Every structure is written in C-alpha cells, then in structure tokens.
C-alpha cells in the first residue's frame, strides 16, 4: 500500500509537469518561464531546489557521524551563497536581460571565456544531480525492502525526473516545485511532531546531542583546521554563486526586486528549515538506539527512512516518503535543466552555427541536451554508488570547479572596471593549473586544493588585467575578437 501511494504521487508529479509543458511556446519560455514568476513561486523554487537529498539524508548522516562543524559547507555555505547572490548579484544580472549566466561571460570577456565557463558550470552539476538520483534509488530500495536494488532505483528515478523536465523546462520546474515545497514543509513538520512525541519533546533530543558534543562548530585554533573550515564554507558559499540554477530562478522573476528578495528569503528559509531533518534523524538515538547503531555502521543515510518505516503508522510513512520524494525531485529537476541549458546556449550553439539559431531549433537542441545530460548523470551516479561516495560528499565536491574557474571572473566582471579578457584567462588558467594537480596528488594537503586554486585565480585576474590593459575605447567583446 505504501508503494502504491508513492507511485500515485510520482504520477501526479509527472502530470503537473506535463501540464506545465503546455505553457512552453519558445526557448525563452523553456529556460526562464517568460520572466513572469511572482515572489512566492521564486521563493518556493529557491528553497525547494536547494532543499535536496543532501539536506534530508546527507546532512543528518554527516551530523550523526561528526558534529555541527561537519556541516560548514551545507547548510551554512549553501545559505550564504543564496543570500550573497540575492544581495550582490541578482539585481545587476537581472538588468542585463541574459538568458543564461554563461551569457555574462560572453558579453564581458568574449566567446572563449564563455565556453570555458559554460563547460565548468555544466560539469559542476554532475555531482549535484547525481546525488539526487542516488537518493531516489535509496528511497526505492528502502520502500521495496530490497526488492528494488539501489542501482535499479537510480534508473527509475532518473527516468521519472527526465520525463517531466524534458518537456516542460522551467515552467515544469516552477509549478512542480511550488507543490512540492508545500508537501515538504507540511510533511516534515508533521513527522517531526510525531517523533517529538516519542522522545518526550524537542528538549531531550537537544540535550542528548549537546552531551555528546554534537554542537561543536568552530575549528581548533591552529592554521590547518581553520583553513579547512574556511575552505569548506567558501567552496559552497562562493563556488555555487556562478551557477545556472541560482541565476535561473532569479532571472525568471517578474521584476528585479522579486529576483533579489526571492533569493534572499529562499536562502534564509533553507537555513532555518535545514534544522528539521537534523532533529528527525538525531531523535533515533532516543527512540531506537539499536536501529541507530545498526545503520550508523552500515549506511547512515538510510537511518531516517528506516526509522520512519519501523516506528510510524502507515499514514505518517506516506506523508514522509511523499515529502522526501518532493525534496529530491524538486532539486533533481531544477539541477538537470540548468547545466543542459548552459551547454546548449553557451557551448553548443556557437559551435553548431555562427548564424542565429532559430528558436524552434534552439528549443529542440536544449531538450536533446537535457536527455543526454540525464544519461551522463545516471552513469555517474551508478559509478559513485560502486565507490560508496556519500550524498553529502557528492554535493560538496560539485562546487570545486566553479569556485576555481568561474567565481573570480564573475565578481571581477561585475565590480572591477579594470578586469580584462586576459585577466579572465589568467584567472581560469592559474586556478585550474593549481587545483587539478593538487586534487590528484595531494587531496588531503593542509591547504585544500580548491582553496589554493581559488587564491591563484584571484592573483591571475589581478595580474592578467594589470599586465594586459584593455584599451578604454574598446569593449571586452571587441578585444576578444581582436585576439
């Protein structure tokens, strides 16, 4: 019966997504929903897209195994990203009337930088989207008592998300996400109340966590620990700013004020509500210590689903798994669309033709890329499953490439008038040349590889821009063509 209810919910989500597809008449509708979305939809999209599998399954698992300091990248870094983007980037980018964030790099620095940034942004999504379909596989595996393997569940989940994202694009993401946010908030609050009744309230859970040093947050007062702490915060806090999904939600707003405050409030809501899954998972220590010990030794990501399945009535299980599927699917759909759009608009479009691509062909190409990227994500998720890579770790790793390659050119391009195309080349080149060898040769170095690459990208931007001054009468794009 539980599986039947879950199947019904999946069918309903697909139906909403297919209905949304009727609103898609051109590529701009598909990518930005016509720039017509109101505050409550934008806020819902920001919240629900970021409130993903890692928030309900990955973050609580990390908290149980480590402490609050282990969550510096997410939710702390993730929330920081959304608030910073809303306050310092959303308004400027919205006024430029761009289709993708990759268009900024073309307008500011030229075609070559656009392609490099576009590829980097798209690659960063492999880990994030794969984390979502991996979580779908985990849910199907738990629901079926192992009859469906996690690998088979990944294939099923990827197919469902692909189906409604492929046809409806941003309109499907907007409408399904709004419904899913309602299910997420109501469902998880309801389950939390049931678990609180079983633990004697919220206070005993907090007291137990405090007694076991789970609220340790600040690093030790030594250089290595403090650098690792700062690097964890900035990898996601800065690295996820030059992302198409964040930009796409702001850019779909009906005006620039909605773009700014929808993003900021979505970030605040995400940070506050991320505490709910932490409470739910940690309550297992008081409700069923034996179950907690079992899944901490086997797979801590399965603890919360197994707790709900073992101790709550059928109706509550339906609510929980409906909310969990909403969490995962809302993130998966948005993060599947974002890199596909970036690849289509900022990489493939210029290679296929130097003339203006017709709107119909652009829409068709974007849908093809969505399908191909979904296949790549599925293969990556199956590969990561064999390597036993955790959901939280997959998401953390996703933003290293954009921190190193895309963040510095974006900030400099918006806020430093003397930033040049050569500066962008130097920033990307030095950042990549520093980060990539260290990632393979010294991944556990005292100075984390992505943080070293980030510092070198800043140095590259400054040095490249000052050594190769751009003529004041020439636009960045003109300089790029002259090169």
> What string gives the helices and strands in order?
HHHHHHHHHHHHHHHHHHHHHHHHH
Largest sheet, in brief, is: none
Q: CATH first level of the largest domain: which class?
A: Mainly Alpha
Number of domains: 2
CATH topology (fold) name of the largest domain: Sodium/glucose cotransporter
DSSP E strands, number:
0
User: Which homologous superfamily in CATH is the superfamily of the largest domain?
Assistant: Sodium/glucose cotransporter
Radius of gyration: 22 Å
Assign a percent range to the helix content. Answer: over 70%
Quaternary organisation: single chain
3D shape: globular
CATH architecture of the largest domain: Up-down Bundle
Q: Determine the number of helices (DSSP H or I, runs of at least 4 residues).
A: 25
Instruction: Give the amount of beta strand, in percent.
Output: under 5%
Structural classification: mainly alpha
Unreliable runs: 472-483
Distance between the termini: 65 Å
Mean pLDDT over the residues? 85
